[in-house]
């Protein structure tokens, strides 16, 4: 059974983000170009300064977007885990009801058709629970990847 997602601090995740590291490298590159480029006009200096500011704004925007993506993924994982837990509870109830239906069948209170219909319903609930489990598992793997630095926004 997949477990509910333990939340890692957002700033810790952002510190390891490959995307932010790439954008910070862009800022460093723009600052280096500004400091090491000789321009003959004020337009060139203005261009280089604008390039640095643009790289900083892009990093700030990406940081905001990544924060949203982190929160969204954690929320989605919590919801998937809750769905799985609910589906597992319903499945267990259906299995108990099926055992009661088998007893009724053995005593001749219901037909074989009714018992088979109920067995089919149990199979449907098993499938739903398995799908919910797989969704929760998939999201837990996405969280692990996010915590290692790969954040999908």
Give an account of the 3D structure.
- With 153 residues, this protein is mainly α.
- The chain has 4 helices and no strands.
- It has helices spanning 10-15, 18-36, 42-106, 112-147.
- Helix 2 runs antiparallel to helix 3 (42-106) and helix 3 (42-106) packs antiparallel against helix 4 (112-147).
- The model has no long low-confidence stretch (mean pLDDT 93).
Computed CA radius of gyration, to the nearest angstrom:
28 Å
Q: Per the principal axes of the C-alpha atoms, what is the gross shape?
A: rod-shaped
Largest sheet: none
Helical/strand content category = mainly alpha
Order of helices and strands: HHHH
Question: Which whole number gives the mean pLDDT?
Answer: 93
- Give the helix proportion (percent range): over 70%
Enumerate the spans where pLDDT stays under 50 for 5 or more consecutive residues: none
Query: Please, how many helices?
Result: 4
Keywords:
4 helices; mainly alpha
What would a concise description of this structure say?
The protein is an all-alpha fold and 153 residues long. It is built from four helices and no strands.
Question: What's the SSE blueprint?
Answer:
Layout: H1 10-15, H2 18-36, H3 42-106, H4 112-147
Helix pairs in contact: 2-3, 3-4
């Amino acid at each position: 059974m997949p477990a509910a997602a333990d939340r890692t601090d957002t700033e810790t995740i952002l510190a390891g983000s490959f995307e932010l590291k790439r954008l910070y490298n862009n800022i460093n590159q723009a600052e280096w170009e500004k400091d090491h480029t000789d321009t003959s006009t004020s337009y060139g200096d203005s261009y280089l300064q604008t390039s640095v500011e643009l790289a900083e704004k892009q990093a700030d925007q990406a940081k905001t977007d990544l924060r949203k993506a982190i929160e969204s993924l954690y929320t989605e994982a919590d919801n998937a885990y809750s769905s799985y837990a609910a589906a597992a509870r319903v499945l267990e109830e259906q299995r108990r009801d099926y055992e009661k239906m088998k007893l009724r069948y053995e005593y001749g209170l219901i037909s074989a058709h009714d018992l088979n219909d109920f067995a089919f319903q149990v199979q449907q609930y098993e499938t739903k629970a398995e799908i919910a489990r797989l969704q929760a598992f998939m999201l837990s793997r996405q969280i692990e990847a996010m915590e290692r630095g790969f954040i999908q926004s």
